[in-house]
Design goal:
- The complex is a heterodimer of chains A (309) and B (303).
- Chain A is mainly alpha-helical and 309 residues long.
- Chain A folds into two domains: 2-51, no CATH class; 71-308, MetI-like (MetI-like fold, Orthogonal Bundle).
- Chain A is 69% helix and 0% strand.
- Chain B is mainly α.
- Chain B has two domains: 1-40, no CATH class; 94-299, MetI-like fold, CATH 1.10.3720.
- In chain B, helix 3 crosses helix 7 (178-189) and helix 7 runs antiparallel to helix 10 (219-235).
- The longest helix of chain B is centred in the middle third of the chain and has 33 residues, at 94-126.
- In chain B, 41% of the residues are buried.
Chain lengths: 309, 303
């Protein structure tokens, strides 16, 4: 019977029930994903975990070294700087981009002219590569850049002086500059999610609430925010996972500088693995990052997820 | 409230806007809305618009203080310069090569995913499959794993197969995508089941049902997949940076980052190079914008 099991378009094998034939087809159809994910995802995860207990550098035969990589990473001051930078970045960016996206969606959800223009126009940064965004913002943030020009024009009277946002170590502006850049380029994407969800809130709920006197800000917090809770959860989770992995901008714009103020976990992993050929050490950091992301996901699910109240 | 024919409270927007007089407060609120919207547009798009103008300025003007708005003299030459900026040992420029590499990689992965993702989604959405729930959940869970964590083993595996620094290093792991299978599964589930049943009564096999009945109905979702995947590969940086190592194999993103290292002070040339990466994506987006929004809302996953 096994010989009749193959990917013929119309299986009419007498001994094979319709259900069994469907199941075989189904697994055949999904097999490309199954094979690739066993190799490049699940197998790869196990392999990273294994590597993190070895002394692999690049091409040597790995020997088991126990927890040596983890103790060395956890005793490294630069690693903790990177963890701090990454967490600060993730918290600030996720918080502001979620609120900004939500507020903009509410503003745009009203009957206003030119809605389509804003929706489409604001999405343009989202179709732009992180590389180009980084290159553009290096130019925006440098000392004679347009950000300084705008700020001097607006606040020059209060004594604002141009800052070299990405390179001035004493001003501590490099990490906030990266935050600002990420908030302003990803908020519009998440706004689309909120806008789609807002259109699903029945108008009657608002009408009922306005009879009860809930208008304006009260209406926003008492109806809109609770109704959008699942989407808020999604946006916070996606935002956190994305921001904890910040790499491209830090790699291209600052290389972690000035004075490691923008060194992130991913930047350290990359440098360890692909610049310094310390694969095992990089694997240990990668695994710590994975655990961190998973832990934060569980925390968020606890406090924001569907069953949290 | 000075209206005659309504008992509604003032806060509820009235549908026959033109015939109804509104409170002054309404106009104040509307004005505030527009001010916020215009301000945000300047913040969101201003940098990119200024970068576009900057790509036409001279090297001196693009860093001048105070910055100019329109270029004093439109230098289209910057685009020619960046095209020829980095010649290889035979005197051929690398830049067009980078563009071509980006295009080849993006197009190949789109073609592969159109088939492999849609057929997997067909199985998830339409076929009897024991253990489907587990496989599907496993697939969704992979979307949470950080890309950098997988880079190390990916590099090792592809290196062992002698595929690093070839197109295959990008294409083979890219032929399926959990996010796209998920999006298509959602879409296929919305197609009425009677259609495949009718096809099967007519004697169509399972593959024929997928190929002749479901795929033609899924065109909008397939266009969405093609656009989002093309854009994803075209804009990808980390994979390409790790897996493609020599300038002749670089895609445009890695090439541009490389240019910044070499010619970082020539902002005008770097900006002109950036436009080669961005403008095609913006153009595709403006032409096909409805498909992007559909993708974002269908899957709930960042495209």
């Amino acid at each position: 019977m096994a010989s009749q099991v193959q990917a013929t378009p119309a299986p009419k094998a007498p001994g094979l029930s319709r259900k069994a034939s469907e199941a075989l087809h189904a697994y055949l159809f999904v097999s490309p994903w199954i094979i690739l994910s066993i190799v490049f995802t699940f197998g790869a995860m196990l392999y990273v975990f294994y590597l993190s207990f070895t002394n692999l550098r690049l091409f040597n035969t790995p020997d088991f070294v126990g927890l040596a990589n983890y103790t060395s990473v956890l005793q490294n001051k630069l690693f903790w700087t990177a963890v701090q930078n990454t967490l600060e970045y993730a918290v600030v960016v996720t918080f502001f981009q979620t609120w900004l996206a939500l507020i903009l969606a509410v503003i745009l959800n009203a009957k206003i002219r030119g809605k389509q223009f804003f929706r489409i126009g604001w999405y343009i940064p989202s179709v732009t590569s992180s590389v180009v965004i980084s290159l553009v913002f290096v130019w925006v943030f440098f000392k004679q850049g347009i950000l300084n020009f705008a700020l001097v024009t607006l606040f020059g009277w209060a004594g604002f002086q141009p800052v070299a946002w990405l390179t001035d170590a004493s001003a501590h502006t490099a990490l906030p500059a990266l935050m600002l850049l990420n908030i302003s380029t990803t908020a519009p994407t998440f706004m689309l999610y909120f806008l789609a969800a807002l259109q699903d809130i029945p108008e009657e709920i608002y009408e009922a609430a306005s009879l009860d006197g809930a208008v304006g800000v009260a209406r926003f917090f008492k109806i809109t925010v609770p109704m959008l809770r699942p989407i808020i959860f999604l946006v916070v989770v996606l935002g956190t996972i994305g921001t904890l992995q910040i790499f491209d901008q830090a790699f291209i714009m600052t290389q972690g500088g000035p004075l490691n103020q923008t060194t992130t976990i991913n930047l350290l992993i990359y440098q360890a693995a692909f610049t310094n050929s310390e694969m095992a050490r990089a694997s240990a950091m990668a695994f710590i990052l994975f655990v961190l992301i998973f832990f934060l996901f569980l925390v968020q699910r606890r406090f924001l997820g569907e069953n949290s109240q | 409230m000075a209206t005659k024919a309504t008992t509604r409270p003032a806060a509820v927007p009235v549908t026959q806007a033109k015939t109804v007089e509104r409170e002054p407060m309404y106009y104040v609120l509307m004005t505030i809305r527009y001010i916020v919207l215009i301000l945000m547009t300047i913040i969101f798009l201003g940098p990119f618009f200024m970068a576009l103008l900057g790509s036409f300025k001279s090297t001196a003007e693009v860093v001048a203080w105070p910055p100019t708005f329109l270029p004093k003299e439109w230098r289209f030459q910057n685009y020619v310069d960046v095209w020829n900026v980095l010649p290889d040992e035979h005197g051929n420029s690398y830049f067009p090569r980078w563009l071509l590499n980006s295009f080849i990689l993006s197009a190949s992965i789109v073609v592969a995913q159109l088939f492999f993702c849609s057929i997997a989604a067909f199985a998830f959405a339409r076929l009897h499959m024991p253990g489907k729930g587990i496989v599907f959940a496993a697939m969704l869970s992979t979307m949470m794993i950080p890309g950098m964590v997988l880079m190390i083993p990916k590099y090792q595996i592809l290196n062992a197969l002698h595929l690093v620094n070839t197109y295959w290093a990008i294409i083979i792991p890219g032929v399926v995508s959990a996010a796209m299978i998920f999006m298509l599964t959602q879409f296929f589930q919305s197609i009425p089941k009677d259609l495949d049943e009718a096809a099967q009564i007519d004697g169509a096999g399972i593959f024929t049902t997928y190929w002749r009945v479901i795929l033609p109905l899924a065109k909008p979702a397939l266009v969405t997949l093609a656009l989002l995947t093309f854009q994803g590969v075209w804009n990808d940086f980390l994979n390409m940076l790790v897996l493609l190592n020599t300038p002749d194999m670089f895609p445009l993103t890695v090439g541009l980052a490389f240019l910044r290292g070499q010619y970082g002070t020539f902002y005008n040339v770097v900006l002109a190079g950036s436009m080669f990466n961005t403008l095609p994506m913006v153009l595709l987006f403006i032409i096909f914008s409805r498909f992007y929004v559909q993708g974002a809302t269908y899957s709930g996953v960042k495209g």
